[in-house]
Design brief:
This protein is α/β, with parallel strands linked by helices. It has two domains: about 240 residues, 3-Layer(aba) Sandwich (Rossmann fold); about 90 residues, formyl-coa transferase, domain 3, CATH 3.30.1540. Helices cover about 40% and strands about 15% of the residues. A six-stranded parallel beta sheet has the order 3-2-1-4-5-6, with helices on both faces. Strands 7-8-9 form a three-stranded antiparallel beta sheet. Strands 10-11 form a two-stranded antiparallel ribbon. A hairpin with a 2-residue loop joins β12 and β13. The protein is elongated. The two termini are about 35 Å apart. The model has no long low-confidence stretch (mean pLDDT about 95).
């Protein structure tokens, strides 16, 4: 990792759960901030999710400390406020009004800490929907993304928590902007990021497509592609590969590479737009021509000619991807929970470098309340008070 990370010395207190808020905290943590995750006594619920949720906690909570506090008890809420008042940034992603109950809302905290940057991650920005309960899948359905992803009449959510993850990233972008402004004005501010508005941003290109053409955007499986050759092909042994040519020059290179001279010289296929119009005839012909090739043969030809291609890869196969391994895109972590607690596996890092280095793992995803005692001592809570029965009921 770079010797000096850009957010070193910044304290972030995170009242978050699930994916959206923790993603924001992870961005700041990976960039060097001290991120203290406040968990309930029973721990973040994502620690023990099954199925598609099994990777949530270890994926989005590296490089953080964990303190476990019972906010329902006055003593616990008081400690949480003291901790928040020591922070540069507070993150939260609870329903509107939840943080007010504990005096942990922006108005309450900024009264004593005017430099505080407070980042609220919500389902919706203020408006008619703001009190609705939102999930990534909810906003994908109501925000047009599921319609665009699925086949006509069969809306389908994207295969990742795209709004949660991007919503957290936009929260982090807002945080960084607020930090710059605080350096100028000396004052903090509240930043809000929301799932629904994030989803609308994702489909904004399709909204503008309609505004410009007057024609509604078709779902992706039924769309009119802007490029003629831009599709998945099933070839020998039922293997699959994505192939593309996105310019006339690439089309000529493709035809030359496979000896398709007749296609290269066909006047009906002279330009990309000509080929788009001819797709109903052209694509079945290309599928037949490529059907007896091995995936590896096609990939080798496309790579040697600098043409876009991609094998169809499953997520678990990425652990063996030679580029990810060579470029340092995976890093070791120790799992904190579940049947594999204490075992080492690998996680994906953020897709950028600073000073030529990837931002790696400084702290493993924490066990529940792992740093409670150390953080409380730093806050000035006496050891005797920490050990007292009164506090032990409020703090894990």
């Amino acid at each position: 990792m770079p010797q000096s990370l850009p957010l070193t010395g910044l304290r972030v207190v995170e009242f978050t759960h699930m994916v959206m808020g923790p993603t924001c905290g992870m961005v700041l943590a990976d960039m060097g901030a001290e991120v203290i995750k406040v968990e309930p006594i029973e721990g973040d619920r994502t620690r023990h999710l099954l199925g598609a949720g099994a990777g949530f906690f270890p994926m989005f909570n590296r490089n953080k400390k964990s303190i476990s506090i019972d906010l329902q008890k006055p003593e616990g809420a008081a400690i949480a406020r003291k901790l928040a008042n020591s922070a540069d940034v507070v993150l939260e992603n609870f329903k509107p009004g939840t943080m007010v109950k504990y005096g942990l809302d922006y108005a309450s905290l900024s009264a004593s800490n005017p430099k505080l940057i407070y980042v609220a991650h919500k389902g919706f920005l203020p408006g008619p929907y703001e009190h609705r309960t939102a999930l990534d899948e909810v906003v994908q359905m109501m925000g047009g993304l599921a319609y665009m992803t699925g086949r006509p009449g069969d809306p389908l959510r994207a295969g990742s928590s795209v709004n949660d993850i991007m919503g957290g990233m936009f929260g982090a972008i807002g945080t960084l902007g607020a930090l710059v402004q605080r350096g100028i004005t000396g004052r903090g501010q509240e930043v809000q990021s929301a799932l629904f508005e994030n989803n609308v941003f994702l489909v904004g290109q399709h909204m503008l497509q309609y505004a410009i053409t007057g024609k509604p955007a078709a779902p992706m499986p039924d769309r009119i592609s802007p490029w003629a050759l831009y599709d998945v092909f099933t070839v020998k042994n039922n293997a699959q590969i994505f192939l593309a040519t996105v310019s006339d020059a690439q089309w000529h290179t493709f035809c030359n590479a496979f000896g398709f001279t007749d296609l290269k010289t066909d006047p009906q296929l002279a330009t990309n737009n000509d080929r788009v119009r001819m797709r109903p005839i052209m694509m079945p012909d290309l599928r037949a021509r490529l059907a007896d090739y091995e995936v590896t043969e096609i990939a080798a030809i496309f790579e040697s000619k600098g043409l876009p291609f991609a094998p169809i890869t499953r997520p678990e196969e990425l652990y063996d991807d030679e580029h990810l391994i060579a470029s340092g895109g995976l890093a070791d972590i120790v799992l904190p929970d579940g049947s594999r607690a204490g075992e080492t596996t690998q996680t994906a890092l953020f897709p950028f470098t600073m000073a030529g280095q990837r931002l790696g793992v400084r702290l493993n995803p924490p066990t529940k309340g792992e740093h409670t005692e150390a953080v409380l001592k730093e806050l000035g809570v006496e050891a005797a008070d920490i050990a007292s029965l009164k506090l032990l009921k409020a703090i894990a």
